[in-house]
Amino acid sequence: MRIWKYAMASTILGSALVLGACGGGNATQPGETATTEQGTEAEQAEGSVSGDGSSTVAPIMEGIVEEYAAEEPGVQVTVGVSGTGGGFEKFIQGETDFSNASRPIKDEEKASLEEAGIDYTEFLLAYDGLTVVVSKDNDWVEDLTVEDLKKMWIEDGTTKKWSDINPEWPDEEIVFYSPGTDSGTYDYFNEVILEEEDLVSNATLSEDDNVLVQGIQADPNAIGFFGYAYYLANQDTLKAVKIGGVEPNNETIETGEYAPLSRPLFTYASNKALAENEAAYNFMKYTLENAGEMAESVGYVALPEEEYEKGLADLEALKK
C-alpha cells in the first residue's frame, strides 16, 4: 500500500472519485484471470458500484478506491462527497449502493429507508477525533473546555469576541468556520457540544473541509472543526486546540479519552446490492479488508481487528 498520509487535500466538494474504469499497463484486463500469490487463478470482477456521503470518510475511501482500481480494473467505482446527510438522501432514493457517514444513521433516515424498501448493513470503518482548530498565527488559544465551546458556538444574539471567553485574549470578533448542515460532522458537533441549540448564525458553512481549512489558515481570529485527518494534512498552518486538557491523537481518540469528540466512521451498504451485484460485494469486501491500514495511512485510527472480522462475517452472510 502506498503512503497516503496528508494526501487528501485534493478532495473536492461535489466531485466524484471515478476510479477503476481502466488500470495500469500491467493490470489484468476485465474478464481475464489473475494469478494470486499462492499461484492459483482468480477471475477479475466486472461491473460498477456507486456511493456518496461524508467528506470526513472521503480520505479513507479515496485511497481505497484508487488501490482497488489497480487490482480490479473491470470495476468502475464512483464515490461522491455531498456530506453524510446528502449521501443518505441519495441512498434512500436508491441512487447509490453504499453511503459513507461520520455519524450513526438517524431514526428518520432509517424510517425513510424502510418505507423505500431498502434493507442495509452498517459497517464500521475507523475512529476519528473531531478536531477544533485555529490558525498557527493564533498565539493565545491552547485549550478550551466544552463549556467554552458552547459559549462560543451557540447562537445567542450577541457578537462573540475572544475576550468573552478569556479577558486576557484579544478584544477581536471570533470568525467561525463549520461543516455544512448536510455534514455528519456538523450533526455530531451539534449533538455533543451544542446539545441541539442553534449554531452561530454568522459562521461560514461548507461540506468541503478544504474550504474550511483555507479560511482558518488565513485568519488568526478564525476557529473551526473537522475530521482529524484534515488537521494532520494541514498541521503546518493549523493548530489543534486541546479540549479539557486533552489533545487529539491516535491514542486519545482510540481510547475515548479525547471526549466527547472521539467518534466512529461508517459506511452503510444496500443488502440487495451486496447480494446481487458482484462488483458491489467485491468492492465492500476489499474496503473492509483494507480500511484499517488506509485509515492509519491518511491520519485516522484503525479499529481493533475483530471489528473488521465482524464486518466481513456480516458481509459474507448476505451472500448466502
TrEMBL record:
Which keywords fit this entry according to its UniProt record?
Cell membrane, Lipoprotein, Membrane, Palmitate, Phosphate transport, Signal, Transport
Chain intervals for the UniProt region annotation (Disordered):
28-56
Residues forming the PBP domain are: 41-288
Q: Where in the cell is it found?
A: Cell membrane
Q: Does the keyword rRNA-binding apply?
A: no
Q: How does it sit in the membrane?
A: Lipid-anchor
Q: Where is the signal peptide?
A: 1-21
Q: Where is the composition biased (Low complexity)?
A: 28-47
**What is stated as this protein's family in its record?**
Belongs to the PstS family.
Task of the protein? Involved in the system for phosphate transport across the cytoplasmic membrane.
Subunit relationships? The complex is composed of two ATP-binding proteins (PstB), two transmembrane proteins (PstC and PstA) and a solute-binding protein (PstS).
Put simply, this protein is called Phosphate-binding protein
Q: Which organism is it from?
A: Planococcus chinensis
